[in-house]
Write a structure and sequence with these properties.
By secondary structure, this protein is an alpha+beta fold. 29% of the residues lie in helices and 26% in strands. It has six domains: 142 residues, no CATH class; 93 residues; 110 residues, PH-domain like; 94 residues, SHC Adaptor Protein (2-Layer Sandwich); 102 residues, Phosphorylase Kinase, domain 1; 45 residues, no CATH class.
Length: 656
């Protein structure tokens, strides 16, 4: 169904097809276009038409964003959908426009966050907690309103036809009619004379009202007009009415910010449904069941892969998508086609960038081309100047240290923030880099063009540059780091706010937490060697249960008497380890505090990895496949530790 304009008349009076009458074209339909300068607010949908050539989905989204007034920071909320809205295109999907056919796609907000409006709600990450930045700006709110209104009136919003729900739908229609009156600068009665209230309610409800008797329909119409005149006396503007409409519509929908996918479990005929919701992550349910099993939230994902399925050894069209969590748990599902698999993975990939790491992608099958450019150029996304300067300060603020980022205001510009030494002291200077349609780059105010950002930065790195009255050199780049915080990330309501710094405060003794073990329950066995300030023994831990005693093999790390001054560090390490739980990390059972301070750990049969490799290197036990499996397990364990902001001693900076 075509996107509806914001004052669209009855659906029956217009075409419901997006299909292009022009051959050899690609049409991108918009729900709302930005108003031209010094013109009244636009209330009509629009179309962007592209002729012969190749276009990526991301390139089309950028063109659409420019037409709709969407800024780069909100660009990542949008995507392209098929004409019937049944599937979405990943950012790197390539559209080819030629004589063979015409194509139609729809530019939509795909990534939605409940509770996006109001204090204490979902917001963009900020350095200071009391300066929360909203997720959406006004152009995006205008677009979301037009899109949501189109879905509501077009019947894509599932609404029960109970009496309370009918009243809520009519209340939304009152808000809609009043908005039209405000924007057209007409009275509610004038608008009612040429726009029917039925054009502002879903088609199923229109059909139900049409089946009522003449007197019932007249009573509904009279009640509607009375409500419209009553609310019309309120002094408010169209923008507030749009916000009220969106918030009421969100409450009306059971699963507002959620997508569902019908899939199969590989090797099984059973159908399951995968649910992806911005506020909770990924869950699944069996076909026909209301009960859901939660799999994980977006920040808990470690890897995603897409591979072709096979039947009896022969490849088929189906695709298997594997999601792996940081704890190595796996969810594997089978999609009927590659297009549906990429639609699903692009959704997960996009939410991960919005909630966990703005510069990350899981697999190249759906990687945004602009992100790949940024990774190659060590360029940040459209972060604010506040975060750019703060990152340079954290990195040491050495003269010549610089940060490259995309402009928050312009899709075709970059900003270079440089730490410079001036007469008045240290300062941060900003240079504007522009890009033309041919892919050439230049510093604003300088005629010389470069074919790449690397060439531009390399040239000015050698000869220096002048900006804002200061002579500067480009000595070292400050690139994006994994999972670093910026205003590109969204903090969801109900989810803990990510820390602004990885530094963890040192704990005092009374804050340390670990399980205490009775020294009498431990039996010391053979010596296994020694650590930096401990003697290591194999031992046994006895636990009393209902049917007697239960023995567990353990490793005992006994604090060396000559290192009593390290006891606080010893206990702090135990406190940290007690809060870690991962299948590829050695488990800490607890600490025994008696005559000796003893750390009680899980006994691992083959011992430390480095010693095992040295011992078995020449015996054929260490195969290539075994090494790959161990490397994978190490990667998951280290990724888990990184998420917890903990550095393992054997991979600390001084040992790399």
């Amino acid at each position: 169904m075509a996107p509806l304009g914001e004052d669209t008349p009855l659906i029956g009076e217009r075409s419901c097809s997006l299909s292009s009458t022009e051959t050899s074209t690609l049409q991108v339909y918009l729900y709302h276009r930005a108003p031209a300068a010094r013109s009244p607010p636009s209330t009509a949908a629009g179309v962007l038409t592209f002729t012969f050539g190749e276009y990526t989905a991301e390139e089309l989204c950028v063109r659409a964003a420019k037409a709709c007034g969407v800024l780069p920071i909100c660009h990542s909320l949008f995507a392209l959908a098929t004409e019937d809205l049944s599937c979405w295109f990943p950012p790197n999907h390539l559209f080819t426009v030629d004589d063979s056919c015409s194509q139609v796609v729809v530019y939509r907000i795909r990534f939605l966050f409940p509770n996006w409006c109001g204090l204490g709600r979902s917001h963009r990450f900020q350095l200071l907690n009391d300066q929360a930045s909203p997720i959406l700006d006004y152009p995006v709110i205008d677009y979301l309103f037009a899109q949501s209104r189109s879905d509501f009136i077009g019947g894509r919003v599932a609404v029960a036809l109970s009496l309370p729900r009918q009243e809520e739908c009519l209340s939304l229609a009152v808000l809609d009619m009043l908005r039209i009156a405000k924007e057209k600068q007409q009275s509610p009665d004038e608008v009612s004379s040429h726009v029917s209230y039925k054009s502002c309610i879903p088609e199923p409800l229109r059909c139900q009202i049409q089946q009522h008797s003449f007197l019932t329909r007249k009573r509904i119409r009279r009640h509607f007009s009375k409500s419209l005149r009553k609310i019309g006396g309120c002094q408010t503007d169209g923008r507030y009415l749009k916000l009220k409409y969106l918030l009421d519509l969100e409450r009306l929908q059971r699963h507002w910010a959620e997508e569902s996918f019908r899939v199969r479990s590989p090797g099984s005929a059973a159908d399951i449904t995968i649910h992806v919701a911005s506020e909770s992550g990924i869950s699944w349910s069996c076909d026909g069941s209301e009960s859901r099993q939660h799999f994980c939230d977006f920040p808990d994902i470690a890897d995603i892969s897409i591979k072709q399925a096979s039947r009896e050894g022969s490849p088929v069209e189906n695709r298997i998508v594997t999601l792996t969590k940081t704890d190595n748990r796996v969810l594997e599902v089978e999609f009927p086609t590659l297009r549906e698999a990429c639609s699903f993975v692009a959704l997960i990939d996009g939410y991960y960038r919005l909630t966990a790491d703005a510069h990350h992608y899981f697999c190249k099958e759906v990687a945004p081309p602009r992100l790949l450019e940024d990774v190659e150029n060590q360029c940040h996304g459209p972060i604010s100047s506040e975060f750019a300067v703060n990152k340079l300060k954290v990195a040491g603020s050495r003269p010549g240290l610089y940060l490259l980022r995309r402009s928050p205001q312009d899709f075709d510009s970059y900003l270079l923030t440089v730490c410079a030494e001036t007469r008045s002291g240290q300062d941060y200077k900003r240079c504007l880099i522009r890009r033309d349609e041919d892919g050439n780059f230049w510093l604003s105010g300088v005629a010389r063009r470069f074919c790449s950002l690397r060439e531009l930065l390399g040239t000015y790195g050698r000869c220096g540059l002048q900006a804002e009255g200061a002579r500067m050199c480009l000595a070292a780049c400050c690139p994006p780091l994994p999972k670093e915080k910026s205003n590109l990330l969204i903090v969801r309501s109900g989810c803990p706010q990510p820390p602004g710094s990885p530094a963890a405060p040192r704990r005092s003794l009374n804050q340390m937490m670990f399980h205490k073990i009775d020294p009498q329950s431990l039996t010391r066995g053979e010596s296994l060697g020694q650590g930096s300030f401990t003697q290591i023994y194999k031992g046994v831990k006895r636990d009393q249960e209902e049917d007697g005693y239960y023995q567990t093999e353990v490793v005992l790390k006994v604090m060396d008497g000559s290192h009593r001054n390290c006891s606080e560090s010893f206990l702090e390490a135990a406190s940290i380890m007690s809060q870690l739980s991962h299948k590829h990390l050695v488990l800490l059972h607890g600490v025994s505090l008696g005559k000796d301070s003893i750390m009680v750990q899980e006994y691992v049969r083959y011992g430390p990895l480095d010693l095992y490799l040295k011992k078995n290197h020449g015996e054929g036990k260490v195969t290539t496949s075994w090494k790959l499996q161990v490397a994978k397990q190490l990667a998951y364990a280290l990724n888990y530790l990184e998420d917890k902001k903990i550095t393992h001693g054997n991979v600390s900076a001084k040992k790399v």
